[in-house]
């Protein structure tokens, strides 16, 4: 049975979680509850559950602190985070601690069942993988190589090294370690064992001296030398049998068996940082981190980027979206942030952008993708170039959806309203409120759509109407009042500026 604990300070929520599904039918045992973070952390230490359902806001320790402390204590627990919509800015920070599942209150039974099924499959695979990896490590040769790679070997002298090389059938001139991983998810145990078998068969049929075995979550290859073309063809051809998208990192070449630890560490270092790397034909190569392309704003930079992006979406500028995403990425990299921090920041950025757009038009909530779907998409990107492209596509989709909703609706209605209410005391602020726009964004949108400011457009409409009145015989003061100008002198200035002659002269032309 898998173990579950519930940590929430609301009795009704705990009661609902106990009853929301039949836990035993999923081989899950509820082994404890806590109504505060301190007791919840203690419960996690005692029970070491597979799953903990934890609320964000609680007395003692909040949900984020419980997760953080659990990680520091080395507890391997999957967490489901519960939060209200307004608390999601806090919940997204939990991504830095590896949390992948968020549920908004009130909790839906079908959504909970879906998450439990996914976790259950992962737990089954995890336990099965542990058993199969234990069996793989039981092979003597692999054990010895792993000991050498990790520095646990007792080899100390050249004579020891010579005997070890002969015993392992590895009296080579050089040694290099390659690590193979799957992009996007850990390989299933069956995939690991099947793939390592295929690689072994390929090595035996090639001119390359090499040994393939499973180490941790990776396929590890110890070879005498590296011919990148041959290795790529062999490894990637084997991967096609299982539909995997592999990443291969190559360690430094060393001249002694005792030094394969250095080769392994260099390959592992690149693998850990593969998020920041470029991939060419399945092989990861180093990529230098970009410096900021421009001076960046002080204070809350993410909020600044979000405001810029929301403006670009409203104005339909895809080029500005690309520029803003690039600037945001440069800023994050300049701070030395790691993968989880960058992903958490992109989640926060997206949340802030949609929040701004919702303030302008809350009907957009019905057409924008859910935040949970966006979080899952961001978390699923294993390399920075792929994440950057995903964010650009997300914002481009928002731009298209915003434009689709607005194209034949509000702006055309605003223009029509101006042409029928030009004589009233029209203000940009009142129009923005009436048509559900933010004042600043409406002003920018007006300039983009018409080529002139709102006030200039209103004056043009009024003067055009005044010209018709004057041509029909209306006196100057009558025309001024009828089109919305309370001051005849001000009307005179505006008319002459736009038409080029005084209103009285224009009236005389039609007599």
Set down the secondary structure blueprint.
Blueprint (H helix, E strand, L loop, with lengths): L1 E6 L3 H10 L7 E7 L2 H11 L3 E5 L7 H10 L5 E6 L4 H4 L9 E4 L4 H29 L2 H11 L7 H10 L8 E7 L6 H16 L5 E6 L2 E6 L4 H13 L5 E5 L9 H13 L5 E3 L2 E3 L15 H15 L2 H17 L4 H22 L10 H9 L4 H24 L2 H11 L7 H7 L4 H12 L3 H18 L4 H7 L5 H12 L3 H7 L2
Q: What would your notes on this structure say?
A:
The protein is of the alpha/beta class and 511 residues long. It is 56% helix and 11% strand. It contains 22 helices and 11 strands. A 5-stranded parallel sheet has the order 2-1-3-4-5, sandwiched between helices. The chain has a 4-stranded antiparallel sheet with strand order 7-8-6-9, with helices on both faces. A two-stranded antiparallel sheet has the order 10-11. A hairpin with a 2-residue loop joins strand 7 (210-215) and strand 8 (218-223). Helix 2 packs parallel to helix 3 (63-72). The longest helix has 29 residues, at 109-137. Residues 285-299 have low confidence and may be disordered.
Describe what is shown at a glance.
Helix content is 56%, strand content 11%. It has helices spanning 11-20, 37-47, 63-72, 88-91, 109-137, 140-150, 158-167, 189-204, 228-240, 260-272, 301-315, 318-334, 339-360, 371-379, 384-407, 410-420, 428-434, 439-450, 454-471, 476-482, 488-499, 503-509; strands spanning 2-7, 28-34, 51-55, 78-83, 101-104, 176-182, 210-215, 218-223, 246-250, 278-280, 283-285.
